[in-house]
């Protein structure tokens, strides 16, 4: 009896070893597919599954060559280096893995490229709308929650939980955005965030913002999954809207499948004890910075539940670069916004940008470098400064201009800082490719920042929509949504009223908006439409004049026209003699006020109403 018991115990102890020999399996391959005819012929396929790294791999498919099967510390991974000849035919490539008497075969699809628009880029002719899908519109209440996800909650009453907005809802509002004069949509990340609730300062929070990826190759089910995203892009393109994808290279969610079973220790930037990034930009550009300060900024983790990827690891770099290309090719997105740009390894960023631009020469790339001065901002884009490292990023979110516009308006409406910021544009190779903004999902909402002052709101939007750069606007700004990030950023991420079935108010319709909300909507629409249809405002040059007595004047001009913008931030109307502006005004005798439609039959002296930015189309 006792002996039998011991034998059973021994058998149980051996079972995993015996079973292990039988359960070698391939569970994932990333990228999940590739295409024939890409400029880049090499692909590194990550193969994952129990013992996937212990198999001997072979591929017998015309035009597809397995150059090398790489193994790493974790036997559950293999990294297969493939080259795909231009002559290869689309089809199912059988990837064969052998171990002893076992043979595993997995199909990996090689697709034909389609002719759908992709990588179209965004330019100054565009006007970008930033929306957080969970908070914009709910087109499919059936996907609001799933019991098998780590966060199975859905609660609109809780500002930190998921609210159920999705891509189907956003698709239903494409016409609304078109009507507003929007030409491109940027969603906060749509990729799967199958993260549990996280405890942040004692409050349980959901990953509704999308910045903690858990599977790069899946769009979150709660947003509608890959099919809904593809459908959204197709519909947006058909309506003439471009789509900007929000990319996160710096970190992933701590429940990302590859974090749960790390391929190797160096996959992440690991520290002996938990180390947060300092969130400080200075050590990156500072010629006097210490190595540890620089390392902490770059390799410290963004927050404890977002592990920092080691982009100097070539397997990590390949994974991220290929995913970027795959996303553009698969979904057809047009531009690329990069999260926390300055916390990434910058040589890696250059490689990644280069790879995207090689495959899609017109694509636009603009990162988030949350800095407060021109020199630091220049470091992260193509610039004219003799930095030891030269960034190849074509654009950036223009945090410096945001600060300049908003700070001026917040106080007395003075444009001195805006003038000074633009006066330093010489450090950038092409500031016209910067994406400008007044607020975003991480900042206090613009209307609140200017103290609910509608005049200042209009001045800010006028600057945004008439000065250089690619303007972007945060959802709800057009209906005067407001709030400070107090007590938390959830306050600036409220649901768009009318986006949910049964909402009491529907601000997507004129009838559902109040009179001031309609005035704001119509104001944005008028300026956006004028901008879109008048090349001088989007591709013309900018000439600005020294602010005098608080009054700030600039021109956008080209061969097709000249637009004059004159801002009077004071509480009283001011007379503006125009002789000083003759370099731009010579030859013009009349003007049309773009916002009021009023005609001016003399330009000798202008009267600027109190707290107004006047936009004049000069006429001969
Ligand atoms: Ca939903
Ligand atoms: Ca980092």
Describe the fold and architecture.
By secondary structure, the chain is an alpha/beta fold. The chain folds into three domains: 21-111, Immunoglobulins (Immunoglobulin-like, Sandwich), CATH 2.60.40; 128-533, TIM Barrel (Alpha-Beta Barrel), CATH 3.20.20; 541-619, Golgi alpha-mannosidase II (Immunoglobulin-like, Sandwich). It is 28% helix and 22% strand. The protein is built from 18 helices and 28 strands. The strands form seven sheets. The chain has an eight-stranded parallel sheet. Strands 21-22-23-28-25-26 form a six-stranded antiparallel sheet. A four-stranded antiparallel sheet has the order 1-3-6-5, covered by helices on one side. Strand 25 (590-593) and strand 26 (599-600) form a beta hairpin. Helix 9 (314-331) runs parallel beside helix 10 (346-359) and helix 12 (399-410) runs antiparallel to helix 15 (454-466). Bound molecules: calcium ion (2 copies). One calcium ion binds at residues 250, 298-299, 308, 343-344.
